[in-house]
Amino acid sequence: MDLLLLLALLCYLAGAFYSVIIFSARSEGPDRYLFTIIAAGFVAHTASLAAGWAQLGHFPIVNPKEVISFISWAMLAHFLVIRWRYRARALPTFVIPLVFILTLVSLLLPAPARPISAALEGAIDASQLTQVLFPLHVTLLIFSYAAFIITTIGGVMYLVQEHELKAKTFGAAFYRLPALNTCDEIGSRSLTIGFVLLTLGIITGIIWNNQRDGKFWHNDPKEVLALVTWLAYMLMIHYRLTAGWRGRRIAWLSIAAFVTVLCTWIGARYLPGYHVFG
Amino acid sequence: MSVVLVGISHRTAPVELREQLAFGDAVLLEALKELVDRETITEGLIISTCNRVEILATTSKHAMDGITQLHEFLERRHGCRPEMFERHFYSFTDLEAIRHVFRVTSSLDSMVVGEPQITGQVKQAFQLAQDARTVGHQLNRLMSRAFAVAKRVRNETGIGLNSVSISFVAVELARRVFDTLKGATVLLVGAGEMAELAARHLNSYGAERILIANRTFERAEEFARELNGRAIPLSEFERNLSEADIVLCSTGAPHFLIRPDHVHQALNARRNRPMLLIDISVPRNIDPAISAFDNVFLFDIDDLENVIASNIQEREREALRAEAIIEGEAERFVASLAEGDLNQVIGAFRREVGLIVQMEFDRSRKRLGELSPEQEQAVHVLLNAVVNKLTLPVIKQLRESEDGHSVLLEAWRDFYHRDK
Asked: Would you please indicate which residues of B are annotated as catalytic (active-site) residues?
């Protein structure tokens, strides 16, 4: 049992409860303790990841247990950066419970007998360069997924708030969710960050491919889906910049695009192909 | 000691009567002095606003006596007749008076429940009474508790959260769309009174650019100067529509001034940045069809009234929670008063007995002759023991007497406060 991760989990649990309480109480309660609690969890989580790396001797993002732990950590990192800019009180209520659930799943997943699959081990050890490229590839992509999760959350918050404003029935959500513009900005900033990371992640993957067997492209399902994801987000950014798409349309698109992320990330595991590890 | 309160408010008296009974700033100081100069009135405070006149006092005698004193005071100052007291005045004593003060300060007794001004007005009244030195220990305690209760009510309930006026609802809506109004542009089409008020509020929340289109251009210019805005001819307002984040429409025109094609063009020009349009004119000046556009939020006067109605309901629900808080606070305060009172009586009683014993000792001192320090010490220990033994059963009984307010306490209080 990873005690540091357990400590982080407890912090997230407290943070999740706290954020829900803050959300349900409409009056502007103090959220500084929330930040302290989450930050403590984040530190413990970081320490857990670092310890894992030192202990295992390999970059600790090679099996589902590790990947899920890492993505919840990346989400939190992204949230902490965003929080610094947008003090939207509703955002932690969406993010922290999700972080908690992911961390819990990671903690409950059994550690694989062989932490690193043979195929992947072979792939990493091919050369000095791939030893750098592999962690870079995975880290960039996971960070981009984390950013896209936040984009999606921004989109969902936007849609709910927009519905309240259009329906003119101001329920509980109206006063608690951030302003429309804020939802939109949280979504678009995260989108930009996520897209840059995704692009870099795909590029490092292609270089890594080439290093290993001289081929840039294998028609592997994960590769194809990654390309679809990249195109989806590219189009979103394109229409946002050129046609001035925003608001509801972008919010729906961000949800749709996130489905492609899920397909790429999880779906591809169940398809035969070259990306057997991951 | 009793707390007493006599007052009238918008609930019990028409405005003519309230006007007649109001204490203007000019006479308030002198009125306060007159109030505490009355027999048995020890401390006094007068809250006089357009919705209420409240006279709060403490009396050294029974509560009913205090009420009579306050009635006499009002009779002398305003010529109030006995039947007026019956019909328009309420009078409260002790727990009820304290609860009333808490309710008033927390804005539960206000015409618009939760409106924030009253707390400030009570603070002012208290400040004035402090300056006039007509409040002492008791009312200081009561009022500082009242302000703490008001704060608690504000923090723990949503009583003041929802806007209940059109201009504030407009601000609230704008903030739900744009978050901060800094840098937002407001376009007024028609500079009616309500639109002006809303524009002022939006301005005070950060909307700096204000464009004003009005049928009489001079009126627009006048208002523009005041708010540091810009006047534009009414016939050309469509051209400025794309600049406007918030549009407030309130002309007397009998037809739609803002039509879907206008808004469509404006949206294109502003690259779909959201627009909030508020139409407070009757008949409406903005075609409701524009509601169908993305990134456009239109509210007409009925929508705003609906928001206000549901906000008032929400406030009333929250007011129930506030009442519960106040009930608890008032009871606790009365309990602490009684305790303070009890301790005072016990202290006075012990001092009194101690003094008697000391006096008797002093009288016999000479006959005792020279005493060594040890002997002197022993005598003091002995006397102390006698005082303790004598007073202890009485104190015990007082403390055990229910809520410290028994006949026993009254008797001892009368006995020991006789000459004060």
From this structure: 50
Q: With beta carbons under 8 A apart, name residues in chain A contacting B268.
A: 244
Contact B90, B6 (CB under 8 A): yes
A180 to B299: CB separation less than 8 angstroms, yes or no? no
Contact list, B178 vs chain A (CB under 8 Å): 179-181
B303 shares contact with chain A (CB less than 8 Å) = yes
Cα distance from N-terminal residue to C-terminal residue, chain B: 13
Are the CB atoms for A49 and A9 separated by under 8 Å?
A: no
Distance (Å, whole) CA B247 – CA B276: 6
pLDDT in tens, A123-132: 666 566 667 7
Closest CA to B193 of B235, B173, B165, B160: B165
CB atoms within 10 A of CB B366: 7
Nearest to A247 among B162, B274, B310 (CB): B274
Suggest the residue from A22, A157, A170, A186 to mutate for an interface test with chain B (most B CBs closer than 10 A).
Answer: A170
Which residues of chain A have a CB within 8 Å of the CB of B162? Answer: 175
Q: Could you tell me if A148 and A238 are in contact, meaning their C-beta atoms sit under 8 angstroms apart?
A: no
Contact A42, A76 (CB under 8 A): yes
Contact A248 B173 (CB under 8 A): no
Smallest CA–CA distance, residue A75 to chain B, in Å, is 24
**Contact A42/A126 with Cβ under 8 angstroms?**
no
Provide the ipTM.
0.83
Confidence category of residue A277, pLDDT binned at 50, 70, 90: very low
What is the distance between the alpha carbons of residues A186 and A81, in angstroms, rounded to a whole number? 11
- Angstrom distance (rounded) from CA B410 to CA A260: 82
- Of B91, B154, B158, nearest to B117 (Cα)? B154
CA-closest candidate to residue A86, choices A156, A12, A187, A18: A187
Q: Nearest by CB to A165, from B154, B177, B272: name it.
A: B177
pLDDT in tens, B382-407: 888 988 888 888 888 777 765 545 56
Instruction: Output the CA angle A111-A117-A122, nearest 5 degrees.
Output: 150
The list of chain B residues with pLDDT below 70 reads 401-420
**A67-111 pLDDT, tens per residue?**
889 999 999 999 988 887 777 778 888 999 999 999 999 988 887
Under 8 Å between Cβ of B378 and B404: no
C-alpha closest to that of B118 among B181, B168, B44, B48: B48
Contact A246 B271 (CB under 8 A): yes
Is A65 within 8 Å of A109 (Cβ atoms)?
Answer: yes
Q: How close does chain A come to B297, measured CA to CA in Å? A: 7
Partner-chain contact A246 B310, CB within 8 Å: no
User: Nearest 5°: CA angle at A208, between A207 and A211?
Assistant: 85
Tell me: the pLDDT tens digits for B123-162? 999 999 999 999 988 899 999 999 999 999 988 888 877 7
pLDDT digits (tens, 9 = 90+) for A115-164: 666 666 666 665 666 677 888 888 999 999 999 999 999 999 999 999 99
Residues on chain A bordering chain B, Cβ-to-Cβ distance under 8 angstroms = 26-27, 161, 165-166, 168, 170, 174-175, 178-182, 244-249
Q: For residue B26, give both structure tokens.
A: 């000019």
**Cβ–Cβ contact B102 with A under 8 A:** no
Nearest to B271 among A244, A248, A249 (CB): A244
Which amino acid would we find at residue A91? L
Q: What pLDDT sits at residue B344?
A: 74
Partners of residue B307 in chain A, C-beta under 8 Å: 168, 170
Contact A247, A184 (CB under 8 A): yes
Give mean pLDDT, residues A208-231.
83
Question: Considering the entire predicted model, what is its pTM?
Answer: 0.72
